[in-house]
Structure formats: structure tokens, C-alpha cells
């Protein structure tokens, strides 16, 4: 096995498939997906082992002999096979060869699908790192799916390595294991680290202060650059997906993409997204109380000081007593040792303090997405702004050591074509987060623009034990869009084979938009419930009933 601790042996390029008496070798053998995948055993792309790499003979030089040999090859090939071959060759030539990952450290066996890592041009002097994995099913006909993680300021490689990428990082920070529920089993998946300053993405001017509008434009420019580099995919169906603060990234990007006829946008899906600060805050207090976190005394005080005429304002209430009690709710949910991303999961590393220290840096874990209007939050934000580069940011109750160890290994960075002068990779960038200007309090207008076009399929899905972006707030948000109800709230099922069909959550469908929950999952749904997440993803892409 090639491990992270040693150089990865590069495989020679395969410019052309090997021919046997007019029969294309890969078609004579069953191409295969990785063992254990849901699509294993079905026809797919030719495996690299079958492409005759080491026996390839360079084509004859220009001249009569070369032309004669070319005519012999054409005559030996059936017309349909020749058409397939020309199509295959054009796709190989279209992709950027310099970005192709020849050999990825940590895998016992290199994949049967192609993958690429490099940089996309964004606005100005910004360079966004991407990692693109082709579909294991059929890249030519499979949709292109963009994935963005949130923060703001966190890397989409978290989604790649711990959620739904083809390889999952193991605790040793060295080994990658194939993911039997990878989303690239049925889609070409593009992971972009956004905005600049996050992960391996950078800006020539090293200015990383940004805002929602700039990020949407930068992601749009990067997506256009992707289709410039991979023109063979420009006509494929395009879906925009993401998680958490991508609840802002994705709809703001979609509004730009819908105005570009060169992109074949079909829909968007957001998991545990921040769709509305107000509805997220208001619903979180109810979520916390009815999950047994607050107690009757605190709940009674909240009802007395934050509510009137059967309506509660836990978002921007100015009553001093309400503010005091909301600060206690904020402490319980975010700083008491509960896992804000999954109420029923342990907190990695044990119960943390408000701030922990590693070497000469403070490590903070508040991304500034809940109860943002509380006065102490603003004071804390200003103090952090003055602290500069002496602070690091990590997701709360999450162990990022394995991913950081892997992505900072020099052999991995080389395989991913990362410039040597770039600093170390971190899951989240404190300076990007703390300087980020949040321009939108709600995504209502963006979703209404998309829905009013009646052209796109939209899914908002939530793990139902997440507190960072809880399911109740997103359900309220979808309801507030006032779309025509088509399917009343009902259970949706997943076939787990050994235990048969089980309720995976609940779904309700409106005209062009659906809201779906995943039972027992937290903020990172594919991590907690990989089979349910894959089933949901497949039904979404194929426009099947959930």
C-alpha cells in the first residue's frame, strides 16, 4: 500500500486505449466500481488497470505510413465503437492534464474514476482550490454537483473527507478508506474551498475580508472557470449543494447562475442551512426547551420577558431581562459542553472551556451564527477582531486532527498540486470568519426568485438533532415562502436490507421545493446517516418521490 509517509508512485499517463484486433480492450472486460459501493458490478467507466497503460505504442509520425495505419485502425472498428472512442478521446483532451491526480497517498488501491485538484480563477486576484471527482457511474451523462461547506470560513474538504466524498479519512490521519455511500457514485462532484483564505484557497494580495455578495460573485466566477477547464461538462445537468452557512452561499450563487444560460442549472439542495437568522434563533429556544435543556424556571422567565400576545421574540428583543435569560440559553446550547452539531453525540475532547489554548494561540469555536444580536456577542466579536493572528478557529466538539494531518502531509499536498509556499491547511480560517460581513438576515427573496421561475428543484434537508441550524427553523422558513402544498408531511423510508424498510425522517413537498428531515442525524447528515443521506441525494437528483 502507498502510505502518506512515503512518496506516491506516479502512474504513467494513458493517452489512448489499447486495441486488440479492432476490439477496444476495456470493452472486452467488465469495468468495475470500487468494492462495496452500491453500484458495484454495474457497467461503468473502464478501470485504469484495463487501459493497457504499459503496452501503449506511440502513434506513427506524420507521413504515409502513419496515415495507412490510421486507416487500418478505423476500418477495424465498428462505427459505433469508433464514435465512442472519439468521444472518449475528446473528453480526455478537454480535462486539464496538469490538474489530474495521478496517485493519491493513503489508498490501498487507486480509484477507477478520474479526479482533479487545482485552482479556479475567482474575482480579482483570488484563487479557489477545487477537488473534482468524476462519477463512478457514467461521467458523460451524470450531473455535475457543486458542494460548499459553510462557516463562514470553513473548508469544503471537510465534506469530502468526512461526509460524502469517495474516500473517508481514518483516525490515524494517514489512511483513506473507500466510502460505500459516496455521492460520486452517481454524480460528478466538485468541491470548492471558498472564499479565498479558506483551506488551500488564497489571494495574491492576501486580503481576506469579504462579504456575502463578494463570495457569491467569486463562487460564480470559479464555476464559470470550471466549465472553461472542463468544457465537456458544460451541458450536463448542474446542481448546487452545500451545508450550514452554505444556506447563504448556495441561494445567492444560484440567483447569479440562473441568469447565465450557458449553465444547465437544474436545482439546489441545502443541508442544515442558515436560511434566516430570526427563525433560527426563535426556533432554537423551543428546540432547547423541548429537548430538556433549559428547565422550567428558565423557560418561565423567557415566556415572561420575551413573549407577549402568544408570540415570542428571541431574536432581537430589547427587554433587559429577556436578554439576560437568552444569554443563559446561548451558554447552555453553545458553551456548556453539549455538542451543538449533534445533541446526542459526545463532545470530542471532552467538555471544553469558552476558549482553549494551544501553544501560543487561543482556539475559539463560536462561528457567530446564533443569537448574533445579543450585546455580549458584539463585545466578544470586537475583542476577537483586535486579537488578530493569535487566534485559531475550530468547529466545536469536532476532532479535525486526522484531516489536518493528512492534508498537511507534503506528499498529499504535492499530489493535490498545492503550491509549496502556501501556509498549513486548517479546517476553518479565523480571520476569514471574524472579518466576514453578513449582508443578509434571510434568504427569502433569493428563494422566491428561484421559485417564481418555476424551473428549479429545491430541497432543504435537516438532521433533526442539530442545534447550530435546527430543523424547526428551516421548516418554518420553508413554510414562510407560502408555496402550494403538493404532498402533506409524511414519513420517508430507507431500505436497510437486514432490518428492512425503516422511517428515515419526514418530508413535505411544495411546488418546486421540499423540506425533509433525517431522523437521528446532526449537522453533518452524511457523516451521521450515510445511507439515508445517499438515498435522499439519489432521489433528489433523479426527481423521484422521497
UniProtKB/TrEMBL annotation:
PROSITE patterns: CARBOXYPEPT_SER_HIS, CARBOXYPEPT_SER_SER. InterPro entries: AB_hydrolase_fold (IPR029058), Peptidase_S10 (IPR001563), Ser_caboxypep_his_AS (IPR033124), Ser_caboxypep_ser_AS (IPR018202). GO terms for molecular function: serine-type carboxypeptidase activity. One of its GO terms (biological process) is negative regulation of chaperone-mediated autophagy. Keywords: Carboxypeptidase, Hydrolase, Protease. Residues 31-71 are annotated as: Disordered. Heterodimer of a 32 kDa chain and a 20 kDa chain; disulfide-linked. Protective protein appears to be essential for both the activity of beta-galactosidase and neuraminidase, it associates with these enzymes and exerts a protective function necessary for their stability and activity. This protein is also a carboxypeptidase and can deamidate tachykinins. This is Carboxypeptidase.
Amino acid at each position: 500500500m502507498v502510505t502518506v509517509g512515503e512518496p506516491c508512485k506516479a502512474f504513467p499517463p494513458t493517452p489512448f486505449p489499447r486495441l486488440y484486433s479492432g476490439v477496444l480492450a476495456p470493452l472486452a472486460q467488465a469495468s468495475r466500481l470500487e468494492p462495496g459501493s452500491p453500484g458495484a458490478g454495474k457497467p461503468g467507466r473502464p478501470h485504469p488497470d484495463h487501459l493497457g497503460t504499459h503496452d501503449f505504442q506511440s502513434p506513427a509520425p506524420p507521413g504515409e505510413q502513419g496515415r495507412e495505419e490510421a486507416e487500418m485502425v478505423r476500418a477495424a472498428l465498428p462505427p459505433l465503437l469508433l464514435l465512442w472512442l472519439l468521444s472518449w478521446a475528446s473528453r480526455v483532451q478537454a480535462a486539464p492534464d496538469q490538474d489530474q491526480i495521478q496517485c493519491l497517498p493513503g489508498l490501498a488501491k487507486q480509484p477507477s474514476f478520474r479526479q482533479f485538484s487545482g485552482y479556479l480563477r475567482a474575482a480579482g486576484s483570488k484563487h479557489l482550490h477545487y477537488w473534482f471527482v468524476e462519477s463512478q457511474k457514467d461521467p458523460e451523462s451524470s450531473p455535475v454537483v457543486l458542494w460548499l461547506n459553510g462557516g463562514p470560513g470553513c473548508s469544503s474538504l471537510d465534506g469530502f473527507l468526512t461526509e460524502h466524498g469517495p474516500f473517508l479519512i481514518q483516525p490515524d490521519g494517514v489512511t483513506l478508506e473507500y466510502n460505500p455511500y459516496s455521492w460520486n457514485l452517481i454524480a460528478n462532484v466538485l468541491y470548492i474551498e471558498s472564499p479565498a483564505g479558506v483551506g488551500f484557497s488564497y489571494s495574491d494580495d492576501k486580503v481576506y475580508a469579504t462579504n456575502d455578495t463578494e463570495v457569491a460573485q467569486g463562487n460564480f466566477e470559479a464555476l464559470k472557470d470550471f466549465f472553461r477547464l472542463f468544457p465537456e461538462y458544460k451541458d450536463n445537468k448542474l446542481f448546487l449543494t452545500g451545508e450550514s452557512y452554505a444556506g447563504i452561499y448556495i441561494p445567492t450563487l444560484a440567483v447569479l447562475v440562473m441568469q447565465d444560460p450557458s449553465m444547465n442549472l437544474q436545482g439546489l439542495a441545502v443541508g442544515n442551512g442558515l436560511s434566516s437568522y430570526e427563525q433560527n434563533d426563535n426556533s432554537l429556544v423551543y428546540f432547547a426547551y423541548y429537548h430538556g435543556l433549559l428547565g422550567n424556571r428558565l423557560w418561565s422567565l423567557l415566556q415572561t420577558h420575551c413573549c407577549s400576545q402568544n408570540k415570542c421574540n428571541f431574536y432581537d428583543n430589547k427587554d433587559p431581562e429577556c436578554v439576560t435569560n437568552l444569554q443563559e440559553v446561548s451558554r447552555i446550547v453553545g458553551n456548556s459542553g453539549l455538542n451543538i452539531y449533534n445533541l446526542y453525540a459526545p463532545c470530542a475532547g471532552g467538555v471544553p472551556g469558552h476558549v482553549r489554548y494551544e501553544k501560543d494561540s487561543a482556539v475559539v469555536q463560536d462561528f457567530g451564527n446564533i443569537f448574533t444580536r445579543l450585546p455580549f456577542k458584539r463585545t466578544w466579536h470586537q475583542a476577537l477582531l483586535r486579537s488578530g493572528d493569535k487566534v485559531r478557529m475550530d468547529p466545536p466538539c469536532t476532532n479535525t486532527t486526522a484531516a489536518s494531518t493528512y492534508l498537511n502531509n507534503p506528499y498529499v499536498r504535492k499530489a493535490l498540486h498545492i503550491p509549496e509556499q502556501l501556509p498549513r491547511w486548517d479546517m476553518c480560517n479565523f480571520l476569514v470568519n471574524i472579518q466576514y460581513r453578513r449582508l443578509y438576515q434571510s434568504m427569502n427573496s433569493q428563494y422566491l426568485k428561484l421559485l417564481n421561475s418555476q424551473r428549479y428543484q429545491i430541497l432543504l434537508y435537516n438532521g433533526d438533532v442539530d442545534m447550530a441550524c435546527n430543523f424547526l427553523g428551516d421548516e418554518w422558513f420553508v413554510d414562510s415562502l407560502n408555496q402550494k402544498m403538493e404532498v402533506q408531511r409524511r414519513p420517508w423510508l430507507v431500505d436497510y436490507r437486514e432490518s428492512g424498510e425503516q422511517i428515515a425522517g419526514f418530508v413535505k413537498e411544495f411546488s418546486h421545493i421540499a423540506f425533509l428531515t433525517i431522523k437521528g442525524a446532526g449537522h453533518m447528515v452524511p457523516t451521521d446517516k450515510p445511507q439515508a443521506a445517499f438515498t435522499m441525494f439519489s432521489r433528489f437528483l433523479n426527481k423521484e418521490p422521497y
